[in-house]
Predict the 3D structure of the following.
Amino acid sequence: MHGEFKKADSYQPLRLLSQGKMVGSVIDMQDESENTALRRAVGNAFATKNILDYEADVDYTAENLIQALRKVRSTDVFLVMQQFQVDFLMKAAFSRKTDYLTARKPTKEITGHARLSHWMKWQSMPSLERLLYKSPFCRGWYETTGKPPLWTAMATEELKIRQDIGSDVKTNREQDLLSKYIEGAKRHKDVSMELLRRMISSTISAGFDTSAFTMTAILYFLLKTPKAMQRLQDELGVALRAGKLSNLPRYTETDKMPYLAAIIKEAMRLYHFIAGPLERVVPDGGAEIAGKWFPGGTNVGVPAGVVHRNKTVYGADPCEFRPERWLEANKHQRVVMERAMLSFGAGKRICLGRHIAELEMKKVIPRLLLEFDMTLDDPEYILAPVDKYSRFMKPFSVTFKDKR
Ligand code: HEM
């Protein structure tokens, strides 16, 4: 086998049509050399050693989250997690303060739900999708119009400000994502400013619904599994009493907590964000995959939901939420279980922002548990997708009661 497995045409329905042009994102980028150049230029912004640069932004936004929850008491969890994400990402990416949490702003206009459902619906028929929605005869009624998403507008504006020679607005912005992107692009001339602008906004849209969704799923599983909730509370309590956990949890503290890590993995295993297979094309010369021969040019992929419920990998009860499975597994089994996880994708195009997502989850979930007793408003609620194409969940609300 020669060459690499490139992203398949099934990613194309994810692209938008705007002012007669196809607008791609970092996710649907099929040109691997362009993606390699981009990753080389911006990878530093996502490296584990730089993740703590965003910790203060998580703390700032988490404080607003706590205050917002104290005011409303009972709320649609996915909505409030989306509001958290916008405010956090705007702060981490552009050092800008937005007020989605404090002003309880709706997120309908910025969610990628419709776009994702469209992608999933048409991913197995990209040519027909192009013909029906994007050909010159039909595009009129599909073309996106109106305001660009919040982050596209902000990326354009911020890039202009920061490129403005002589401007002194650069102070205090050395740590944010955009400044790291700009630094990277200066060192790698093959990345144009236009590509950079497109990529910073698509990076944020890649991190927005995904992280809000995953934090919502984690809370759901905790609330539905009192034993797991208690064990996590105990883990936090022991660490607090031993002076190993601050009231505003630090990442360096919570990253050492095995049960918290197991909860996050187990929730991501059972309720992952992308429904369909993330297809790749078998390179010229063909390849043997799982004991079968596939000729070059074949699209291959497997939905995460299938792999994540494989009994050989995850044990006899793969449909159960049982974080303990991650702690009981021996070293070899754990490696196999981790390698089979596709929630962040896998291989060369694995999610760039996964360490940032972990930073958020490992700080926000413990903080919520330290501040509140939480209950599902409808104890009968079962987590389920709202439509058959995406995994966006039917809304559910939770009541947050102060612990102290
Ligand atoms: C729990 C939260 C998250 C989940 C579940 C998630 C999941 C994913 C998945 C499944 C992919 C696609 C992989 C593929 O097509 O093969 C992806 C790609 C990506 N994600 Fe995430 N993501 C999360 C958070 C974030 C965050 C917070 C950011 C940025 C701040 C981010 C940035 C990206 C980028 C830039 C890509 C494209 C990488 C490439 O194609 O080279 N993600 N993510």
